[in-house]
Amino acid sequence: MTTTGTAAGGDEVLQLWGVNRTFGTGPATVTALAEVTVGFQRGSLTAVMGPSGSGKSTLLSCAAGLDRPSSGRVVLGGTDLGELSETELTVLRRERIGFVFQAFNLVSALTAAQNVALPLRLSGRRPSAVAVRAALAEVGLHHRADHRPAELSGGEQQRVAIARALARRPDVILADEPTGALDLRSSRQVLELLRAAVDQHGQTVVVVTHDPVVAARADRVLFLADGAVVGDVCGPLDAGDIAVQMAKLEA
Question: In this predicted model, what pLDDT tens digit does every residue of 183-196 receive, in sequence order?
Answer without folding.
Answer: 888 988 999 999 99
